Amino acid sequence: QVQLVESGGGWVQAGGSLRLSCAASGSIFSINGMGWYRQAPGKQRELVAGITRSDNTNYADSVKGRFTISRDNAKNTVYLQMNSLKPEDTAVYYCNVWGLACYGCSPRAFWGQGTQVTVSS
After folding, report:
1. How would you classify the pairing of strands 10-13 and 115-120?
2. Confidence band, pLDDT 50/70/90 cuts, at residue 29
3. 35 phi and psi, to 5 degrees?
4. Per-residue pLDDT tens for 64-105?
5. What is the CA radius of gyration of the chain?
6. CA 36-27-53 angle, 5° bins
7. C-alpha–C-alpha distance, residues 89 and 43, integer Å
8. Fewer CB within 10 Å: N-end or C-end of the chain?
């Protein structure tokens, strides 16, 4: 059983900062890509940022220059530093990990339970 535990969400005023963390634990053999998605009310889930095992990153255009994704492979943890937050960043943020649950298993995506980020104007 793979578990992704997210933390760091909350309420902040526009222009403020938050840092999200997501730690993978349990029966996980290896982790490749890690990332963050978000879903605002009435909208589809969208990719916010992703990072490969070799630290190549990609970002949604709407967050470039404001958000930074990083990872600690020794801790199986991915972070999302969010600066200059805007009301339109308000959403539930989901951690995503692409990896193998066991040796010989097929690679698959694992998801966190989501953490609410609310940015007030």
Report:
1. parallel
2. confident
3. -170, 180
4. 999 999 999 999 999 999 999 999 999 999 999 998 888 899
5. 14
6. 45
7. 12
8. N
What is the greatest pairwise CA distance in the chain? Answer: 49
pLDDT at 2 over 90: no
Pair 46, 121: CB distance under 8 Å: no
Q: How many CB atoms lie within 10 A of CB 89?
A: 22
Cβ-contact 43, 31 below 8 angstroms: no
pLDDT at 109 over 90: yes
- What mean pLDDT is predicted for residues 35-62? 97
Contact 50, 60 (CB under 8 A): no
